Write the structure tokens for this entry.
Amino acid sequence: MRQPRDTFVTDRLPDPATWPLFRFDRPELAYPERLNAASELLDRAVDLGEGGRIAVVNDAGQWTYADLKSLSDRIARVLREEGGLVPGNRVLLRGPNSFTLIACWFAVLKAGGVVVTTMPMLRAGELAPILAKARISHALVDSRTLADWREAAGQSADLRWTATFDGDAGTGALEALAAGKSGGFTPWLGRSEDPALIAFTSGTTGTPKGCVHDHRALLAPTDTFARHVLRPEPGLRWCGSPPLAFTFGLGALVLFPFRFLGTSVTVENGSPANLLAAVGKHKADMLFTAPTAYKAMLGQLEDADIASLKTCVSAGEHLPPAVFAAWEKATGHKLVNGIGATEMMHIFISAAGEDIVPGATGKVVPGYEACVLDAQGQPLAEGEGRLAVRGPTGCRYLDDQRQAAYVQGGWNVTGDTYRIDAEGYFHYVARSDDMIVSSGYNIAAPEVENALLMHHEVAECAVVGAPDPDRGMIVKAYVVTASGSGNPSLARALQDHVKATLAPYKYPRAVEFVPALPKTLTGKVQRFRLREERA
């Protein structure tokens, strides 16, 4: 008898004519026609005799690959037998990074569901649109995040089954149900191009979009960026601040560790201080976080034990050269810079080790093709233009008219302005909407931000264009000071500092001191909110 299927996601993919060109033209990307990413990432390791390896470690304990397989198998049975899940149903996960959350993630894929992991800090008003957009049918929720969840779930007409878990305490209702199930679950084996994940964008430009990725797309970042740039070996311990809902974090803490027989070091609250503590306590080798966190950690290194670190990866937003230089000087580690996107799953331009050129993001990752497009949409051999990329992953928005804006002529057009040099290195200029035109001059906001960050009084800053009757726009800087306060004298000092560092026309004609910058839950500065405030 043929198993029932829920085709909601596949029915709401964009017209294939609007998809990017997908490329699987390398041997390591030749995935089989039938594939379950959970089997490939986790079960295969156990089958090869690696079940005794440590899979996850955190302040609550440690668990082996065999432990993780057993719990994910039993949760998969719960989803099928108690929740009535059929392949294609959307399952929402909510909770901080933990062993149990990772087990839930694998369980959903094994059962044939489509994972929709959400940030644990999302409020009801932010959760409700995700529930409605993805037509969530099932949910596995950390009991510590129930308040906002209940309000959002009460607005959903599609949600039919929810189970709660208690972090890594093992005492929740889900764990009790799982304890009554046998292991040895046989994962659903669908097509490699079947939807596996809906990743909602973190909202730097407003309304989030749901990015649909298939089972191949969960493996592709491991066999491109991780394999060729990071070059991991078995036994590494992988640590980072991004939530699993953020594809940067999913790669760092799930996809990469388990593809290469490593260990995931999870931190529930990934503040800079907590990250440093986790690195020291759990002897992490690999560290993943955003540039702002690296800058914050610089002032906390004196009492930190980071001797175990081998590689530090920065992504999520542009890495200012000043932060790169300061981190290398303080730690001896050159930050592995990278640009990725939720639409692309993970990093597609980067460099590591001797291939790093300070100030450049890097070269295109093997398996991908990238270029910059001129105003007519034609690729440039060298020069500045809109960044475009294609490869084994790409943008497919769930039921969203914005697909045509992101994919153009088979390319994923990321919304970034880049410069490519004769050696094939890509240099970040600005987000396309962060270019400021003032009195006819094009001024890249990140360049001004980097100059400001070189001043000892600047802890954080964001630069945007502000309307001006004489110049059309002027450069305006929002500054968080190291001392927590600012005054007109400091504003003039910062303006003079930028004039001395860059061409004088680029200096911020307006400086506003603020206690904090608006950010997404993943730490990206929301410049659009600053622009809206000015408007």
Observations:
- The first strand starts at residue 34 and ends at 35.
- DSSP finds 16 helices and 28 strands in the chain.
